[in-house]
Write a structure and sequence with these properties.
By secondary structure, this protein is of the alpha/beta class. The protein has a single domain, classed as Vaccinia Virus protein VP39 (Rossmann fold), CATH 3.40.50.150. Helices cover 32% and strands 17% of the residues. The protein has nine helices and seven strands; from the N terminus they run H-H-E-H-E-H-E-H-E-H-E-H-E-H-E-H. A seven-stranded mixed β-sheet has the order 3-2-1-4-5-7-6, with helices on both faces. The longest helix is centred in the middle third of the chain and has 14 residues. It is globular, with a radius of gyration of 17 Å. It starts with 22 loop residues before the first helix and ends with a helix.
C-alpha cells in the first residue's frame, strides 16, 4: 500500500492551466523549458524517490534559494539578477505562469535559475536535509473558505518538509494581502521550527529592501487590500530544531 503522502496518492488543489498560451509562449515552452527544468525530481524521472544531489542543479556549490509558486516570475527573475552567485529554484504548477517566466528569463538573460513546473512537494521528497538557504512564499493561494484552510501552504504537510530542507539560520519570507493568512502563518510556522522576526503588526507593513512588487501585489493594492510582509528564520538551536524539524 502506498503511504498517504506519496506523490501518487496525495491531492493537489489549484489551477494548472488558464487561457491558451500565446504563440511566443508556446515557443518558450518548447525551446527553453527542457534546459531549465530540474531533472530527477518528478515521480516519473525518479519513481523510487532517491535523494538527489542539489549541487548537480547548477554544477557547483553555490547557495540555493527556493521560491514556491512564482506566479508570473517577476520576483524570481529580479532575485536572480540581483544575486548572480546564488542558484534559485522556482516551483509553479500553473503552466501559464511558467510560460510567462520563460519569457522574462529570455528578456533578462539570467542563467542562475532552475524550474520545476509542478508541486513543490515532489522537490521536498528528494532534497537532502539542510540544503537551502532561503525560501519565498509570495501571495500564495489564500483558500479563503474555512473548510479549505488545510489546503494552504502554511500547514504541516508543507512546512515540515520545508523546515527539513532549510539550513539552520535560513530565512523564510511570506507576503500576503489576506489578514487571515497572516493569522495562520504566525500560528503554524514557528512550531514547524522557525523563529518569527516580524512578530508585531508594525513589522508587517515594510517590504524587504530587495523587494520587487509583483503583479499580484499591485492587484491587491488596486482593490484596497494591504500587503503584509513576514520573515522567519529557521531555528538554529540544534536541540529545538531537531525537536521541531
Amino acid at each position: 500500500m502506498l503511504p498517504p503522502n506519496s506523490p501518487k496518492t496525495r491531492n493537489f488543489y489549484g489551477r494548472i492551466k488558464g487561457k491558451t498560451l500565446k504563440p511566443a509562449q508556446q515557443r518558450y515552452m518548447q525551446e527553453d523549458l527542457a534546459d531549465l527544468r530540474l531533472s530527477g525530481v518528478s515521480p516519473q524521472d525518479n519513481p523510487d524517490r532517491h535523494t538527489v544531489n542539489p549541487q548537480a542543479f547548477f554544477g557547483d556549490t553555490r547557495p540555493l534559494w527556493l521560491e514556491v509558486g512564482f506566479g508570473g516570475g517577476e520576483h524570481l527573475v529580479h532575485q536572480c539578477a540581483r544575486n548572480p552567485d546564488v542558484g534559485i529554484i522556482g516551483c509553479e504548477p500553473y503552466i501559464n505562469g511558467v510560460a510567462m517566466l520563460l519569457g522574462k528569463i529570455r528578456s533578462a538573460g539570467v542563467e542562475n535559475l532552475r524550474v520545476y513546473p509542478w508541486d513543490v512537494r515532489d522537490l521536498f521528497d528528494v532534497l537532502p536535509d539542510q540544503c537551502l538557504e532561503r525560501a519565498f512564499l509570495l501571495y500564495p493561494d489564500p483558500w479563503p473558505k474555512l473548510r479549505h484552510h488545510r489546503r494552504r501552504f502554511v500547514t504541516p504537510g508543507y512546512l515540515d518538509p520545508l523546515a527539513r530542507v532549510l539550513k539552520p539560520g535560513a530565512l523564510f519570507r511570506v507576503a500576503t494581502d489576506i489578514p487571515d493568512y497572516v493569522r495562520q502563518t504566525l500560528a503554524e510556522v514557528p512550531p514547524a521550527g522557525f523563529d518569527c522576526l516580524t512578530p508585531a503588526p508594525v513589522d508587517w507593513v515594510q517590504p524587504w529592501d530587495d523587494w520587487l512588487s509583483t503583479r499580484y501585489e499591485q492587484k491587491a493594492l488596486r482593490e484596497g487590500r494591504n500587503p503584509h510582509y513576514l520573515t522567519f528564520r529557521r531555528d538554529d538551536n540544534p536541540v529545538r530544531a531537531a525537536a521541531n524539524g
